[in-house]
Amino acid sequence: MEIRAVDNFLCEDDFKEVIEYCKGATYLYGAVDDDGHENDETFCVGMTHLIYPNYPFDNRCVPIKDRIKIFDLLFKECKSQFPEINEYNLTRMYVNCFSPRENPYFHIDSVNENTKSYTCLLYVNDIWDFNDGGETQFYINDIIYGILPIPNRMILFDGRIKHKATTFRNKYRFTIALKYEDPLS
Length: 185
What we know:
Number of strands: 10
Helix content: 10-25%
């Protein structure tokens, strides 16, 4: 199970536009990373802003032309940079927003562990320092690996890998997720 990273994924002007989009978007609270654990209640963590499919109540402050521009930009660039997803269907595209010191759960992005899927994840914050935190952690064979949230880095990974976001120490953390499912699964 490979995890690939592409730095400087977007040109500088496009990346600045994506940052402004994320900062100006309307977010809904209530995302749940996991279905719960024995003797443990699952709490909502993070906020989301849905780009695709379009739900009007989720995008009140973002003009449709801006949402379409972000969708087109990321959809085309992912298809270009990651040809392995070309046979897969895009099922969701959204912005994740985590407040400082939230504690997300590990989860998978596939419908289930047998459904082939890919996730593309773009790190949207404009600055980052090693002491900020904010990596994405992957749990593979009883080892946790971390991918650093370098601005304008896009990662591609198998959606069946258990993973979780970690938050920044003192600022909001933005990522844009594109989720692809195998149409034959």
